[in-house]
Amino acid sequence: MKQEYKLLTPGPLTTTATVKEAMLVDHCTWDDDYKRITQDIRAKLLEIAGASGQDYTSILMQGSGSFGVESVISSVLDSEDCLLILSNGAYGQRLGEIAAAHKLNFVLYEQAYNQQPDVHEVSDLLRVHPEISHIAMVHSETTTGMLNDLEPFAELCKEKDLYFIVDAMSSFGGIEIDVTGLDIDYLISSANKCLQGVPGFSFIIAKKSSLEVSRGKADTLSLDLHAQYDGMFDGKWRFTSPTHVVIAFEQALKEFEAEGGIPARHARYAGNMGILIENFKEIGLMSYLTEDNQGPFIATFHYPRDNFDFKDMYAFIKERGYAIYPGKLNNMDTFRIGVIGEIYPEDIKLLTAVMKEYFSK
């Protein structure tokens, strides 16, 4: 018998029945109706970003969020450029892995996982490395749940005339990001995060002028961001697109708008997170991050005791309708709870009851 459970994860996440049902229709990628859907999605993403179509464009890219990040990194830098990566988690580290795989010049600035990047230290690095041309960072670091402050580094990029790349995988659509005001050159996110679609493609909000300057730098075929952009002028993807995923995302965007857009979705997620942190504290589960660094999307919790068996707890919770995430910290034992997707305060309260039942065994 099929077991159904909700995903308390940072993505993939629990979607509505109507988003899933949208995938029951087959589409031809050359069909004008399907190309119109692609163009409508691109326009809606710019609207959510608060970005003008005159200055920015949106580009859809097959694959997970990491495919989108790699598309940007491998398409906008070449041997003449140097990337400064700000890392305080595994996804910042992944930026470095991508740069290394493409043999790009980069400098990795590493901060403790429970600390924000320090703009003064980064400014000092820029003086030591005048060759740096781009800065890349993760907005919501799902390793811990840290919500990094973009503004000081956006200002630094403006001051030093550097390109600014933001991995907003688990934050875009769930919190206001002033793409234009922050002068972000490339923002990357995914269909299956705060916009509550299903996995299958990522997307890039790109400043047109920056995109044109970096034309010709791509060192891959399928991840060539500029070629993808050129091919999408009429809504046609260069290679076979995940048609069912795209149709599901169209429905997810309608539901996003009906809920009230970013303000309503952020309020729901933040409400979920507030209940989660408070309820878990009451049953002796302590958050890894301080309140001022905790984002509204996913939280990391310490193991309650030395002999704690996460797999046993995971199985217990799953049998009762929820799936959670293991921790991603190398130096301590933790687990993670995500509160995005079709998740409501009642789910967090039910999870708390399940956890109480488990610890009372």
TrEMBL record:
InterPro entries xrefs: Aminotrans_V_dom, NH2EtPonate_pyrv_transaminase, PyrdxlP-dep_Trfase, PyrdxlP-dep_Trfase_major, PyrdxlP-dep_Trfase_small, SP_NH2Trfase/AEP_transaminase
Domain of life: Bacteria
Boundaries of every Aminotransferase class V domain copy: 35-327
Cofactor(s) this protein cannot do without: pyridoxal 5'-phosphate
Residues reported to bind substrate: R336
UniProt xrefs under Pfam families: Aminotran_5
SUPFAM superfamilies registered for this protein in UniProt: PLP-dependent transferases
EC number: 2.6.1.37
Modified residues (N6-(pyridoxal phosphate)lysine): K193
Chemical reaction(s) catalysed: (2-aminoethyl)phosphonate + pyruvate = phosphonoacetaldehyde + L-alanine
GO BP: organic phosphonate catabolic process
Entry GO MF terms: 2-aminoethylphosphonate-pyruvate transaminase activity
Key words, A-Z: Aminotransferase, Pyridoxal phosphate, Pyruvate, Transferase
Homology family: Belongs to the class-V pyridoxal-phosphate-dependent aminotransferase family. PhnW subfamily.
Subunit structure: Homodimer.
HAMAP family recorded: PhnW_aminotrans_5
Function: Involved in phosphonate degradation.
NCBIfam families in the cross-refs: PhnW-AepZ (TIGR03301), PRK13479.1 (NF010006), transamin_PhnW (TIGR02326)
Protein known as: 2-aminoethylphosphonate--pyruvate transaminase
